[in-house]
Each structure stands twice: as structure tokens, then as C-alpha cells.
């Protein structure tokens, strides 16, 4: 069996900054790798997540010039956890502003989970700007995916944790958790807001791990992370990610000419393989790798192996 690839040493950014994208928002960004090498952009998950040092290591830094940034309201971007002027369409426009800032004509588009949603939406809006598309944990923002996460699906795998998730809601709101959480997360009671944010973020932390991980749960339980993740993710899901039902599959013909790779965990409880499989049926040219011992996180050995083999391949390095 071929040895699995692991992260490249995470390089320090050679440049960082804040970009004013209008509407009162400024985005934190960093560039790593080799200036003038093959361009790539990293679209993080959530919505409401951010970037980390480890994520920089998914590319060979000698062969790539990578831009990583934190989306509106996320991480070091300001204003923190803001829902105003924060939609998928705003983020697509932001990516174009960042591309122009970097001076790239085209770049590799790389995203996992919500980042896969945004990668597809951006590439379909601007197919002339994507040299390749690398996706992990496909999420379309369609109704069956919300039902899986917040009604019946993941709740069947983690019934104990789902009970904890619902426990912070009034009983009459538990049939529609997205709406019930919205009322609390946008309310005035700061204690209840933090309690709800931690419950939302913990549910996320549970479903993204293949095996129990106290480190992952601790990350999601951090108040700063939990508030941004819960508020922004709930905001997007309440508005169906600002996409029409079935939109990303319906528009896949716009990107079929672009080389692509999908890395999907067989046992992903957050974004199950159904969506990746449907995308492959609509986009026969894409390479679909279903990792037999994989869940959702990029850092799992089989998932990481597939991602790094993809970035190495597109940089001209043998797999």
C-alpha cells in the first residue's frame, strides 16, 4: 500500500494584511509559499470558521503561492461575527477583490465543507478564474442536508449529543432548531446567547469527527470560536446559504471543463457522501476519491492524503 501523504511544514506568511471590501467589512488575509509560484486560494469552512496554521501545509510551499483569508465576520476579520451584508454573493465578490489584490489572472480554488459550497458557487460565477477545483466534504446547501444535520440523520448516529444540542431550546422550538437558535443567537440575553452558541458549536464538533476528539471539541467550545460559528452558520442556513435549491448541481455545466478532485470521507456524519456522489454524476470528468476510513476533517490521514496528492498533482509533482 502506498504510504499516505502528510502535511508539508506550515510556512510562515510572507505577507499579511486587511482588505476593506466595503459594506463596513475588512478581511484578514495571509499569503504563504513562494511569490510568483502557482496561485491558489483557500476557502475555509463553517460558515463562520476561520483559518489555522495547519491548513497552510496542504500545498508544497515551494510550488505554490497560496492566499488564505477569513470570510466576513470570521476570525480576525471585522466586524466580528457580523451578519450584516454577509451573504454568499458578498463572499464571491470578496474573492474576486482578493484575486485582483494578488494580481492573479487565475488560481486554484480549494475548499472543504462550507468551503466546497463557496468554491462551487465562486467557480460557477467566474469559471474563467479557476485553473482547478479541489473539494472536500461536499455540501450543496440543499434542504436534505439541513434535515440531515438538524432533524433526522446525524441525530440517529449521535442521539445522546443531539439531545444535548436541543436541550438549550424551548420545547416548542425543537422541531425547527435553526429558527429557534436564531432567536437566541440574535437576542439580548448574552448568557443564553453564549450557551446556545456553545451547544451549536459542540454539535458541529461532534459530527465532524470520525472518532471522539477532546481537542476538536475544546476548539469549538472556545467562546470566540463558538459565537462566530453559531451566529454566522445559523444565519447562512436560515437563508439556505443564499442559494436556490439545487442551484450548484443545476449549474455544474459551467465548470465541467475545469479539472477537479473531490475527497470525501465514507463515514462523514456532517456532509455525508450522497452529495459528493450526486456531484460526480453531474460532473463525470471530476475525480472522486471516497476515503474508506475517512470522516469530515481535513486532518484525518486518508482525507489529508487525498488533498495533498491533488495539490501535488496539479503542481506537476507525481502522485
CATH topology descriptor of the largest domain: Rossmann fold
Shape: globular
Please name the CATH architecture of the largest domain: 3-Layer(aba) Sandwich
Helix and strand sequence? EEEEHEHEHHHHHHHHEHEH
Query: In percent, how helical is the residue content?
Result: 25-40%
Query: Radius of gyration from the CA trace?
Result: 19 Å
Compute the number of helices.
12
The whole-number mean of residue pLDDT values reads: 96
Question: Can you tell me the number of structural domains?
Answer: 2
Question: Order of strands across the widest beta sheet?
Answer: 1-2-4-3-5-6-7-8
Strand content: 15-25%
Structural class: alpha/beta
Any overview of this molecule?
The protein folds into two domains: 15-142 and 243-314, Alpha/Beta hydrolase fold, catalytic domain (Rossmann fold); 144-241, no CATH class. The protein is 40% helix and 17% strand. The chain is globular, with a radius of gyration of 19 Å. It is an alpha/beta fold and 319 residues long. Strands 1-2-4-3-5-6-7-8 form an eight-stranded mixed beta sheet, sandwiched between helices. The mean pLDDT is 96.
Amino acid at each position: 500500500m502506498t504510504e499516505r501523504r502528510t502535511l508539508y511544514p506550515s510556512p510562515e506568511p510572507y505577507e499579511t494584511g486587511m482588505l476593506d471590501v466595503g459594506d463596513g467589512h475588512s478581511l484578514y488575509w495571509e499569503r504563504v509559499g513562494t511569490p510568483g509560484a502557482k496561485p491558489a486560494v483557500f476557502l475555509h469552512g463553517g460558515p463562520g470558521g476561520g483559518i489555522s496554521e495547519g491548513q497552510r501545509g496542504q500545498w508544497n510551499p515551494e510550488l505554490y503561492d497560496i492566499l488564505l483569508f477569513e470570510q466576513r465576520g470570521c476570525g480576525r476579520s471585522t466586524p466580528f461575527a457580523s451578519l450584516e451584508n454577509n451573504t454568499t454573493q458578498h463572499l464571491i465578490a470578496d474573492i474576486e477583490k482578493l484575486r485582483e489584490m494578488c494580481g492573479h489572472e487565475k488560481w486554484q480554488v480549494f475548499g472543504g465543507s462550507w468551503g466546497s459550497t463557496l468554491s462551487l458557487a465562486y467557480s460557477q460565477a467566474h469559471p474563467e478564474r479557476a485553473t482547478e477545483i479541489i473539494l472536500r466534504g461536499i455540501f450543496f446547501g440543499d434542504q436534505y442536508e439541513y434535515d440531515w444535520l438538524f432533524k433526522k440523520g446525524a441525530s440517529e448516529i449521535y442521539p445522546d449529543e443531539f439531545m444535548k444540542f436541543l436541550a438549550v431550546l424551548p420545547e416548542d422550538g425543537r422541531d425547527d432548531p435553526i429558527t429557534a437558535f436564531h432567536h437566541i443567537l440574535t437576542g439580548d440575553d448574552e448568557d443564553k446567547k453564549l450557551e446556545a452558541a456553545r451547544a451549536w458549536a459542540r454539535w458541529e464538533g461532534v459530527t465532524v469527527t470520525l472518532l471522539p476528539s477532546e481537542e476538536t471539541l475544546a476548539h469549538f467550545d472556545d467562546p470566540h470560536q463558538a459565537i462566530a460559528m453559531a451566529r454566522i452558520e445559523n444565519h447562512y442556513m436560515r437563508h439556505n446559504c443564499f442559494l436556490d435549491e439545487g442551484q450548484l448541481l443545476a449549474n455544474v455545466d459551467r465548470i465541467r471543463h475545469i479539472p477537479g478532485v473531490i475527497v470525501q470521507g465514507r463515514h462523514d456524519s456532517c456532509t455525508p457522501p450522497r452529495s459528493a456522489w450526486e456531484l460526480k454524476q453531474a460532473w463525470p470528468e471530476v475525480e472522486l476519491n471516497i476515503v474508506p476510513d475517512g470522516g469530515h476533517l481535513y486532518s484525518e490521514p486518508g482525507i489529508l492524503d487525498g488533498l495533498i496528492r491533488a495539490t501535488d498533482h496539479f503542481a506537476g509533482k507525481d502522485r
